[in-house]
Design brief:
By secondary structure, this protein is mainly alpha-helical. It is built from six helices and no strands. Helix 1 packs antiparallel against helix 3 and helix 3 runs parallel beside helix 6.
Length: about 130
Amino acid sequence: MKSIWKIILFGFMIWLFPFFVSLLIFPLKETNLAFYETIMPLSITLITVVMATFFFRKIRKGHLRHIQKQYLQMGITLGIIWVFICFFIDLLYFSFGPIKMTFSAYMSDIGFTYLIIPMITIGFGNMLERKTY
């Protein structure tokens, strides 16, 4: 049960970090859109690697014994849950919040970028399961 709350918290942090980055660099969207759109996936990648490292480190140290040796399965699960958390929060924000966006506009502008998340977590899980590090 404790690991579920940790997964949800880490997923929220994966959404929150790029959100804050986007607020900080928002003026770039007007002056240098290409640079803005380069920074955003980098921020998602950075926070996902950090959160996956923290999560898998806990497993490796034995704090989450019930999921030890199931690294690939955990990587797949983490990626799916974290992507859905990001989608859910974004869809609330972009559907009902201050910025209105259609679903197709959201997916083409932001949504597909979140596919970085499961690529990273599955890569971590695969690497740890195969012990090729």
